[in-house]
Amino acid sequence: MEQEQQNLESFLTWAAQLGISDSTSTNQPQHSFSACLGSSLCVSHFPHSGGRGLGAVRDLRRGEIVLRVPKSALMTRESVMGDKKLCIAVNKHSSLSSAQVLIVCLLYEMGNGKTSRWHPYLMHLPHTYDILAMFGEFEKRALQVDEAIWVTEKAILKAKTEWKEAHALMEDLMFKPQFLTFKAWVWAAATISSRTLHIPWDEAGCLCPVGDLFNYDAPGEEPSDIEDLEHLLSSTSIPDTILLNGDKNTMVDAEQLDSHSQRLTDGGFEEDVNAYCFYARAHYKKGDQVLLCYGTYTNLELLEHYGFLLPENPNDKVFIPLESAVYSSTSWSKESLYIHHNGKPSFALLAALRLWATPQNKRRSVGHLVYSGSQVSADNEVFIMKWLSKTCDAVLKNLPTSIEEDTLLLNAMDNSQDFFTFLEITKLMSSRDEIYTFLEAYNMKDAHSFTGLDLSRKARRSMDRWKLAVQWRLKYKKVLFDCISYCNEMLDSFMK
Ligand SMILES: C[S@@+](CC[C@H](N)C(=O)[O-])C[C@H]1O[C@@H](n2cnc3c(N)ncnc32)[C@H](O)[C@@H]1O
């Protein structure tokens, strides 16, 4: 712990020397060279939303700048390949993707140890990740849903293929054996996947010291109240004309305002100041965690790229099996036919089902209703609500565990002080196959002999990923359950 604190302090001092600053002044940082934070932000721990992250040291207003990271402080392919040896070797392997090269660059710098220019930054990177490509067979199976298992298999295969493709380059660079392993590769790939930020000149993105300490918030509502708008306008370089313009240019103004508010509520590289700039995306009280939106992701995508999921993710989607006739009844893409996080079918799914449930020879005549989101008829609506409810129910019944069992299992994982208590709680579950598989995988068949003992590190890591898998599948099941409730409510309204 003390070592970690020391690493953090030397990292922040190093960052200040590179010009990274959370000062609101556009010129020089207001505080001393000894640390880059303290004017707006501080590194803090947020156990329920991302662990280590950045907290507000004072009240922050939406739209105000909270961090600047100069281009020279960004770790990019370009900046690392200033090293001649690396540059010559990489140029001989032109078939590698830009992301593969950035992974090699990261491992190369890790291999340079203390002599690396990035050493203080590299020291504070996480030691492990929980992205899907790191899931073992047991954790993958724990996802239970074919789609999620398939995405995991694809992620593992992609990591293995890319590692093999990059092997010759890493050998040319005479990497030490520990940096040539698949384990090292997935660590570096996970670092790149979960921490890089977009830059316009390189699709591999950049590692952004300090800027990569912001934890994630899902995209939310754009500012709507007048106070927010006034603040946006007064705190930026938006020309006064926008403020003063009357009705005649409302559309143009709204568009301009929208693009400014997008820019203001997120991070991005800004050419004019040659730096990555981060703005508060909401009003924050002193002590609050300051968050950044990395993009719009479902929970499965968050797991795949970042190794976490959100308990309440407004962008989550659940796909259910549909007959091919449903897909062919409309021109909407498969990706648009899903159930929202709150159990409501998507606009396209409802419309596709309404058309599919209409006799072929009548579809043309009801097209205008369907495409405007209206019901076709009471009979049609009752039919599709019954069908949707039955389909969701069948999916739920086909899965090896129920919502109740998953909830119990998660409670056991959360509340057990030791492994013995965990096992005691799980005895309440009707099916314990999964638990026995876990015990067997870690040679703990005689679990009672482990009373009071902690799990091995390997078993603990597996349990962390197992927990993520259970959280994911539970959320998936709850969405299906909520969809059934939604259908039942709709059916009830037809009975009245
Ligand atoms: C860019 S880093 C953010 C800083 C990171 N917490 C750290 O300690 O270095 C992204 C990683 O933080 C974690 N994370 C970010 N937002 C999160 C959230 N809302 N809930 C849980 N974990 C989150 C995930 O592990 C993710 O891969």
UniProtKB/TrEMBL annotation:
Question: What highest taxon heads this organism's lineage?
Answer: Eukaryota
Is S-adenosyl-L-methionine among the key words of this record?
yes
InterPro entries xref list: Rubisco_LSMT_subst-bd, Rubisco_LSMT_subst-bd_sf, SET_dom, SET_dom_sf, SETD3_SETD6_MTase
Keyword annotations = Methyltransferase, S-adenosyl-L-methionine, Transferase
Q: Would the keyword Membrane turn up in this protein's UniProt record?
A: no
GO molecular function per UniProt: protein-lysine N-methyltransferase activity
This chain's protein is named: Protein SET DOMAIN GROUP 40
What species does this protein belong to? Mucuna pruriens
